[in-house]
Write a structure and sequence with these properties.
alpha/beta, TIM Barrel, 13 helices, globular, binds 1,3-dihydroxyacetonephosphate
Length: 342
Amino acid sequence: MAENGLEQTARALVAPGKGILAADESDGTIKKRFDAIQVESTEESRRAYRELLFTTAGMEEHISGVILYDETIRQSSADGTPFPELLESKGVIPGIKVDKGAKPLALAEGETITEGLDALRERLAEYRDLGARFAKWRATYSIGEEFPTEYCIWTNAHALARYAALCEEAGLVPIVEPEVLQDGTHSIEESAKATGRVLQAVYTELHDQRIEYRGTLLKPNMVLSGYSASSRAGVDEVADATLEVLYKHVPAAVPGIVFLSGGQTDEDATVHLNAMNALGPHPWELSFSYGRALQAAALKAWRGEEANVQAAQDAFAHRARMNGLARSGEYSPDLEKEFAAV
Ligand code: 13P
C-alpha cells in the first residue's frame, strides 16, 4: 500500500488537530438545507455556497480534506479555479462521495441498501483525473424491534467492501461509512448492540475482500441514546459506550476513525469527540468528518446574501477550530464564547 501512497493520504486526513469537512450533500439534501434558510437551490447558489466554505481563511489549519459531490468536483471558484485545485493549493485534500444513495432493500420493508457499484471502476478513474484522492460510501441502518436485520447488515457490508476494493485498486483512500441512524427512542445499549453487529460484518467483508486496512478510514456513528428517547445518556456514557464498541470491532491497523455528526447539535458533536480523545491515546486517530455540525451555523449566518459571506466564514472557521481542539481533548464549552466569531 505504501507504494501508491494510500496510507500516507489516510494519515494526512487524520493529522493532529485536523478533520474532514463533509460538503458532499446530494442535490436533494442541499435543497433541504437551503429551504431551511429560504435560499433557492440552483447550480449557481450551490457553487457560491461551496466557494464560501472553501475560501474561508485559515480553514486549512483544522480541515485536512473536503468531501465533494459529483456536481461540486466539476465546479470552480468565481475566478475560474476548479474546486479540487483550489483545495489542493491550500493543502486540503479533495475527496468525492461515490455512492448513489440508500434505496429500499428488496423484500425488507423499512431497510435500505446503498447502490452505486455499477460502472464504479470507470467513475473512480474519472474522479481521480478530476483531482480526488479519497472517496466516501455511506450505508444506513435503522434501529427498531426487528432492525437492523442480518440481511440488511450483510448486504451493505458486502457492498461497502466491493466499493473499498475498487477504491484501493484505483489509488483512492476509501472512507467506509456504515451509519447506524440514531433516530428513534432506543436506549444507548441498543445502539451499542446494533453498531457492534454492523461493524463486525463490515470488517469481516473488508477482510475477505482483501482490503489493506492501513489505506482506509472508518466513518461511523457515535453510540447514542435515540434522539427521541425520554432520557438520554450523558457525555461520559456516550464516550465510554462508543469506545467500547470500537475497541471490540475495529482493527488497530485502521489509521483513523472519523465520526459523522448525524443529528447531534454542533456542540454535542464537539463535546463527544473531545471526551473520547481525552481518554486516549487510542490505537487509531479519533477525528471528525462532519457535515451538519460544521455547516449549520455558517448556513444560518449566510442566508444566501453576499453581505453575510464574512459572517458565515467566521461561523464555519469557529466550528472547525473547536473540533480541531476536540482532536486532542483540549476543547471546553467555555471556549465557545472566548473564541466566538465576531
Ligand atoms: P453529518 O455530519 O451531517 O452526519 O454528515 C456527514 C456525512 O458525510 C454523512 O454521509
